[in-house]
Design goal:
Layout (H helix, E strand, L loop, with lengths): L11 H4 L10 H15 L2 H17 L1 H4 L11 E4 L4 E3 H5 L4 E5 L6 H19 L3 E6 L3 H10 L5 E4 L4 H6 L2 E3 L2 H8 L4 H5 L7 E3 L3 E4 L5 E5 L10 H11 L7 H14 L6 H6 E9 L2 E4 L1 H14 E13 L5 E12 L11 E13 L2 E9 L1 H9 L3
Parallel strand pairs: 3-4, 4-5, 10-15
Antiparallel strand pairs: 1-2, 1-5, 3-8, 6-7, 8-9, 10-11, 12-13, 13-14, 14-15
Helix pairs in contact: 2-6, 6-11
């Protein structure tokens, strides 16, 4: 990753990232590392890396990769101790948070691994298992695990076989490959058959116990990573937890399937009563068919919509459930505003009636006025 002798000092950051504040989010740490890179890197290096990121975007790998709603390919891989670890066995114990890191030579990967390790107790308390996959050979994974004091499974994906099945492998540009060669040898880290011009995306998936991918983080920029706190919240607030009341579990399933990718509207037929009513400030929508049409229209206006509950709780007999949530997406004319394709988010609170094990009525309030003001604000 170097062109000049002055660039050598930056390689120290591969081995560690001093000065990281304990209370910084992973995103803050990554931004700090990126700022340091931009301050010290030669222009030709920055240009080559930016072109490399664009090449990943143009390659189509993000669209080709596995996404939410798809079956997660099973695998059996070995850890640094030579022990076999199978995805299907892990899923018997709970959901799996599966993440790829490029190698111990990558400072962004080291920051991410440490942040995940710090959040490990939170993952475990939510019943999730954290697993990292890497193309590194076992002796290299052991070094990376020891360096970052990792207590979760780190598995060698030899020659990118599993990464290929998930569709997350991309080809380095010749310029980026040559920059890497000046600092380290990918073949030494990954083995000769893995090639010196292939790497996995820094992808992260959350896989439910049914083997279905429920969350996917995919980005062409190797410096962008899934925030551990977001992953923990997803597991806790959208996946079943021990002790969940039946009505809470019912609503979680609704939020997960209807309002998060891949937006499975068949869940409306499964989870709602035939006479379901949603009461909005603008009036009632009555019946499952009408509600499904309302949801489809809403999701067209709020593209790539996602919903994350802050908390969900039920009354003693389970006939009422309350949820505070935040929704996000891309504006395609929500609230009658212009389709400016800008990212938006807003919060809300919903009270639900549960009857005979299904959702029968929803009273909902959203921060609509605040959202409208944001979308119509003059620059």
């Amino acid at each position: 990753m170097i062109l000049r002798a002055s660039w050598l000092c930056l390689t120290l950051l591969v081995l560690g990232c001093p000065g990281v504040m304990a209370d910084e989010s992973l995103q803050q740490q990554l931004e700090n590392r990126k700022a340091e890179f931009f301050a010290k890197a030669p222009e030709e290096v920055k240009t080559a890396y930016a072109a490399g990121i664009q090449a990943v975007t143009d390659s189509g790998v993000l669209a080709a990769a596995k996404h939410e709603g798809e079956k997660a390919p099973d695998f059996t891989l070995t850890n640094a101790k030579g022990e076999s670890v199978a995805l299907h066995d892990l899923l018997k114990k709970g959901p799996v948070v599966l993440t790829w890191y490029r190698g111990g030579w990558c400072p962004y990967c080291n920051l991410t691994l440490r942040a995940l390790q710090k959040a490990l107790p939170d993952f475990e308390s939510a019943g999730a298992q954290l697993v990292a996959l890497t193309p590194e050979l076992p002796d290299k994974t052991l070094t990376t695990a020891e360096k970052n004091d990792l207590k979760f499974q780190v598995l060698t994906d030899l020659n990118h076989h599993i990464a290929q099945e998930y569709g997350v492998v991309f080809k380095l540009t010749p310029e980026v490959r040559d920059l890497y060669k000046r600092n380290f040898d990918l073949l030494e880290y990954n083995g000769a058959e893995a090639g010196d011009d292939l790497l996995p995306l820094a992808a992260t998936y959350i896989i439910g116990q049914d083997g279905i991918i429920r969350y996917a983080f995919l980005d062409a920029d190797y410096r962008a990573r899934a925030e551990p706190a977001e992953l923990v919240s997803f597991v806790k607030e959208l996946l079943p937890q021990k002790g969940d009341a039946e009505s809470v579990a019912l609503l979680k399933e609704f939020w997960l399937r209807v309002w998060n990718p891949p937006h499975d509207l068949s869940a409306i037929d499964d989870l709602l009563t035939d006479d379901f009513v949603i009461t909005n400030p603008s009036g009632d929508v009555v019946g499952k068919a009408a509600f499904k049409e309302w949801v489809m229209t809403f999701q067209k206006k709020l593209g790539h919509s996602k919903l994350m509950p802050f908390e969900t709780f039920a009354n003693a007999d389970g006939t009422r459930v309350v949820s505070r949530w935040q929704a996000s997406g891309i504006n395609h004319g929500i609230l009658g505003t212009a389709d400016d394709a800008q990212p938006v988010n807003f919060s809300g609170i919903a009270i639900w009636e549960v009857r005979d094990g299904k959702l029968s009525h929803n009273w909902v309030e959203r921060s609509a006025w605040e959202l409208y003001q944001t979308l119509t604000a003059k620059p």
